């Protein structure tokens, strides 16, 4: 294999050059782990996906997700985008493409639904592979140091800053308003210190900040910083959005709920993204989180593996 085909697309948007860029290698057979990591580092997107035949023939594919520095067990926009790419194919490793896909990932099985318009994939929806897990609380001083703000900008009315996950762990914190959110700037030394103090995240200290709309608490504006993973800021983070949405619904007083949450991210970067979440709660426990969004194709090309 001398060359390797790839496609790129923008995820959580229907406008090209907005949303979150993703590169998809739809047939990664024959690539070593090291080669996958080098390719992901070369793209320098927040994630690149590599698609392989499934280990269980009942599933559609095995999907591996790499950031510029490491492989991760789950992420939102890579799954939404990879499903969009594969959903446009007639077959995936010899099996016809249906309206639902199942991806094998380190975090578990990710179930995907394809939403078509005029026979073409218009959007995809994925189900979070793990139940909501809440980790340690984080001091507001730690959050403030990471983003160059005063501790008073961190709001603790609904919850203290905390680790949360539905497949990938994030530090989550609410800020006092859009002005504070816009003023946030990642401070590498703060992130390094925060990562050195925590032992439970299982991932470099990645920080998801948000502000809730006073008129509608289920309309959220967010930003995500992960400078320790060579991602100074991410335009759209489905896995963090899903963790946040599940956590906020878990904190709501109603024991049974079905909530649609809209998270707007990437505005400050000029890459506006819209992430839709459908969160179900029964008997006081969050039972389901579905992440959905649109995609638009951007580039096609070949990676030269050998001269």
UniProtKB/TrEMBL annotation:
What is an example of a Pfam family matching this protein?
Answer: PhzC-PhzF
**Could you tell me the superkingdom of the organism this chain comes from?**
Bacteria
Its source organism is Rhizobium hidalgonense
Family note: Belongs to the PhzF family.
Q: Per its record, how is this protein called by name? A: PhzF family phenazine biosynthesis protein
